[in-house]
Amino acid sequence: xxxxxxxxxxxxxxxxxxxxxxxxxxxxxxxxxxxxxxxxxxxxxxxxxxxxxxxxxxxxxxxxxxxxxxxxxxxxxxxxxxxxxxxxxxxxxxxxxxxxxxxxxxxxxxxxxxxxxxxxxxxxxxxxxxxxxxxxxxxxxxxxxxxxxxxxxxxxxxxxxxxxxx
Length: 166
Known about the structure:
This protein is mostly helical. It has helices spanning about 15-25, 30-50, 60-70, 75-80, 85-100, 120-130, 130-140, 145-165; strands at about 75, 100-105, 110-120. The model has no long low-confidence stretch (mean pLDDT about 90).
């Protein structure tokens, strides 16, 4: 008796294992992107109670970090440093300005450029923000060296990913 064309032969153990491995790669827990995404959500949960007393959201905190490092930064430069487009950054800056933490003004040398500077209140907020990094470090449960190593590895990964799409 011969097999019909529609009947499939039973899979060999090797091809079955290979097929299962391919399916495993599609499991949610196997996705690097999901591990990074869900970790970012966890970070946001930890940052929120640390930033609430400062009156800042996490994206606003990032802008303030840029300005505390170097005041009087063009909007375009803030966007480049934070990997944010102007559609995301402009409302953020408007809220910081309404809160009295920053001022936006045209660069007298180039009217096309909008610069962001800290207000007196924005500069003073830096002192209160000193408590945020140790709070994050404690939540991570890692030593300073481990945190810096993890940060360096993530930055290197981001650079490789950015290079892969350019």
